[in-house]
Amino acid sequence: MSIPDVTELTLEEKASLTSGASFWHTKSVDRVGVPAIMVTDGPHGLRKQREGGDHLGIGDSVPATCFPPAVGLGSSWDIDLVHRVGEALGTETSIENVGVLLGPGINIKRSPLCGRNFEYLSEDPIVSGVLGAAIVRGIQSKGVGTSLKHFAANNQENDRMRSSSDVDPRPLREIYLRGFQRVVEDAQPWTVMCSYNRINGVYASEDPWLLTRVLRDEWGFEGLVVSDWGAVNERVPGLAAGMDLEMPSSNGVTDAQIVAAVRDGSLVESAVDVAAGRVLDLVRKATEGAGAVAGPLDVDAHHALAREAAGRSIVLLKNDGDLLPLAKDAKIAVIGEFAEKPRYQGAGSSMINPTRLDSALEEIRALTAGEVAYAQGFSNALEVADEQTSALRDEAVAAASVSDVVVLFLGLPARLESEGYDREDIDLPAAQLHLVDAVLAANPNTVVVLSNGGVVALPFADRVPAILEAWLLGQAGGAATADVLFGDVNPSAKLTETIPMRLEDTPAFLDFPGEFSHTRYGEGLFVGYRWYDARRLEVAFPFGHGLSYTTFSYTDAAAQVDANGDVEVTVAVTNTGDRAGREVVQVYTSLNGSSVQRAPRELKAFASVALEPGETQVVTLTVRRKDLAYWDIRPGRWVVEGGEYTIDVAASSRDIRSSVTVAVEGDVVSLPLSRTSSMGEVLSHPIAGPVVQAAIAQMMGGLDESAASIMPEGVDMSKMMESFPIGRIGMMGALAGDGAGTGPEMIDDLLAMANAAQRD
Ligand code: BGC
Prior knowledge:
With 760 residues, the chain is α/β, with parallel strands linked by helices. It has four domains: 25-65 and 76-289, Glycoside hydrolase, family 3, N-terminal domain (TIM Barrel), CATH 3.20.20.300; 299-497, Glycoside hydrolase family 3 C-terminal domain (Rossmann fold), CATH 3.40.50; 552-664, Immunoglobulins (Immunoglobulin-like); 679-759, no CATH class. It has a six-stranded mixed sheet, sandwiched between helices. The longest helix has 21 residues, at 269-289. The protein is globular. The two termini are 55 Å apart. Bound molecules: beta-D-glucopyranose. The site of beta-D-glucopyranose has 7 residues, from loops. Beta-D-glucopyranose binds at residues 41-42, 102, 149, 228-229, 349. Belongs to the glycosyl hydrolase 3 family. One of its GO terms (molecular function) is hydrolase activity. InterPro entries: Cellulose_deg_GH3, Fn3-like, GH, Glyco_hydro_3_AS, Glyco_hydro_3_C, Glyco_hydro_3_C_sf, Glyco_hydro_3_N, Glyco_hydro_3_N_sf. Residues 583-653 form the Fibronectin type III-like domain.
């Protein structure tokens, strides 16, 4: 089918294309043969509303494989695995004839309280960007599109449709936009979804700076911008700003506004052409890609992939005395409601109707030859009488006391983690914390398995010998948990977010969720581990941490700058244990004596490597030169500062295995001099510097001896003068008793000469 060019459409037809026909469809233009396409959530499975289903399709969507939500999948740090899951998502999308899957979500986990953290990948932009690009590539390889969301700085749910994220330029660029930039530049998602919130006071859906200057002019985005569902504030300015497709339908109201604006001259028709043209491009891509994958869906194969991905998402936080893996003939007490009724995804628009659902209890029973007792332990119901809580606890203690080992499933009740609102604390319910103490007293051989979409405080971490952070793992999480418990899968996941000791320690604690619809990002660049490291705070488990049933050694780390200016890091990693495993190798950089504020170390590259027992592999990791750059607020651009960078090769952000240094040549930042340029800046200028140096020497010569002598010994006059604006230097002339002084004209002439020489 050939999709017409935008020039063949009337103004009304073009305007009609810029908003949806329904909740999930774009509009058709039958006269010229433009079909409607369907878009649907996303992100960790397909949520396609059944014909005649409920309005949002949350309760009644076509069964689809529920892969681990981003909180789990991201913990794999495995680009290849994430790509394969993306391919499977693309396959299911294509089979169901959907043009665009609404994901991935890659917002930064600024606070553990964000109700939607389960849908996001990390507190770090490189992890979010690299893995986000892998998902996009995987999905789009099947002839369907993605929607990179929620663009941008949508880091809380509270007041999300109005709140302004007030972020300074450096953190905005270096933390909150960097991941989006990476995905756009590396993977060209078919669409980008603008968020509900405002950024520094401007709605994302009508921000020309965000949607056009940054996204298109700087990053080269070629696709279409779609609004989050209901994110449009004022449609006409939004269209002019670069917000192409409003979703869902506005019942024609905003289309008419667009037509009227063109007619009264307040909107140029070319803006409508551009947006409608992009909708046509999207429809073209979707129709060309349609049918790329033939059905029916191989439910078993995708369930198996969901199981593999879930196994790779489980983080072994601690394993004292090698309590794990469990012997298959051990007498096991499984305790906790989550073992029987899994929490496998978060609430809201991303809820998938799974093709099947494993429970950990059944899967543990299936894998073991031993006896498995089960006790509910606690109730996740809204209202639970104290007597019931005690009875459940007593029953659990009884089961624990007659078993070799206890597997205790704890976690957050589903109602605590949802799109649309945030959490109020990071605590597990009190009944669960009491249960841990009672169970430990009855049987110290206790393994805790956690089910949660956002991090929780672990006040028992020192007392429990083994902890698995099992996040929300999708439909095969139960089987995957059993695989890891018994060692059929050797855990290899690592934390993409820090587990803090207390909520009060977290970076955004004092600025979350803001007030009067403004949230000040007061912690600036210091998000996640950047904060805990800079403040030297103790954490429960650091960013990048995760154990294995085997061990790894790192040797021969080296770094060099390659022909592209990127830093190539190599390290030999050896599996020093007796079982096969995977290690996630991380590279962090820092620059001693940097002229700008920086975190003590920042993640720049990572790799997941599979190793047989005794095997060594040399792993090569590339730190892109552009990822070393900071956002320089003076010229408003990325700048790589020159210097001797420290390259930490690490098993976690707090387990540095080897450090090397590499000299990186910096970018030249030549800023024009002005009267407000400081003496320091002028003195370091190649042209103006020597002239001013000579003038100062002359002036200082004229200074009265007694004036100089009142200064305490060692006071550095030149340092004092460093920040003195050159425009005020005339005053110094007066001080020197130099009647002629250094007049403003002389200074202006000097600055003009220096600036002209620099331009040449
Ligand atoms: C969510 C998006 C989602 C959309 C469609 C919005 O409320 O923020 O992530 O894709 O609804 O369901």
